[in-house]
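User: Can you predict the 3D structure for this chain?
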Amino acid sequence: MNLLLAQAETAAQAQPASNPGMLLIWMIVVFAVFWIMMVMPQRKQQKKREAMLNALKKGDKVITIGGIHGEITKIDGDDILLRVGDKVELKMLRSAVSRVKGE
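Assistant: Here is the predicted structure, written as structure tokens:
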């Protein structure tokens, strides 16, 4: 019995104590990798979309996020007037545009 207790104590003393500083460094590395892989591409895509929305002009043929195809007839701030058919125009938010046709 004493032999088993002695072996257990020896094994416990042989294991090095974990370094909290090393754990912090690994957490920072994991966070940096997460940032590079997830957040940076998202920001790049968001800036590209904002540039596309700011470049909208009268006469652009667009597709909305709801799948409606039309041509911009008027832009008034954040609102656009979209012609979807003969004598049929819809008033929408500029942010409802998904993409410009031809791009």
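The chain is about 45% helix and 30% strand. The first strand starts at residue 61 and ends at 64.
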